[in-house]
Amino acid sequence: MATPLPLRFEETPIAGARLRTRLLVWSAPALLGVLYAQRMGAHPDNDVPAWKLAVIALATWYVWVAFTPFVERLADRWPLRAAPVRHAVFHLAAAAFCTLLQALATALSTAVVGAASWALLPGIVGDWFWVLLPAGVVVYAAVHVARQAAVARARLEQRERHTERLALALRESQLTALRAQLQPHFLFNSLTAITALVRDGDTTRAASALEQLSALLRDALRATDVHEVPLRDEVERLTHYLRIEELRLGRALALTVQCDAEAEAALVPAWILQPLVENAVRHGLRHRAAAGTIVLTARVYDATLTLTLTDDGAGLAPDWERRAALGHGLANSRARLDVLHGAAASLVLAPARSTGACVTLVIPVRHVEG
Fold this sequence. Notes:
By secondary structure, this protein is an alpha+beta fold.
């Protein structure tokens, strides 16, 4: 059996209730007692005024306001589930003790209001004890059950919060691990491209590529714990990346962005578009002799952000589905979408209508809070 989570007494719902809450709870039986006292006071054979009977009734039941914390602590200390028979006997004795104190409070109130002589107090206590014992056991049991139910509910809520914290920690670690895979991969490819420029003696282009790479790394290091960024930030990263690829390939790579202000402000997973554009350059645009174009379209509709990346490259290879399944970029992107959004997000690669390839990414719309 799993060990229950530690739960301090003062953290549970009933134990933390204020005095006025207990007074309100015990006002129900006290009010019934007052109504009964009024009825008894109107009886012809009764010689005790109704107001005295009402005071006695209030004392009889409001005394449980003081007993309630005591019963709750006993319920915590000796729960029935731990040792049903032995603890049941203990709680019966505790219920009898509470009833005895209740009888004492009733007898004292009787003497105080002058409804009986102080000399008769011991006998009155005994009489009230046997009268109140059945109800006292039932009331004690009700407090005990209510306490156990409150503790069970509190433990359930605590487990749910604990589970949520674990899920959040797992989600954060998964996203961090996926980004840790992605950024070194991109850095390696970029440095390889810059190394090729240096070997070719093209120091001007190599220096420009290093500046673009520096801007990307500065951005990545500035927010290593941020898993979602506005789309406009992702577009800026793509611009830096494509400048590096232009210098490496020696031809222009144009990025056309078609989106409105709402889509620009929507949050997307950080670095989600870079590996998709990298695939477009590597498998589609790299073999073109002329300049290549990538079109990014972003639309918000019905609480959904749809991103479409289309290139005019060579298109998908005959075995593109197998390559896509084995590739790093798509697998990483899909894994991150699954962690962030689950089944609410999707990423689909397909041939473009005319030439090239098209990647469609669908995620729920979210914006920066505040």
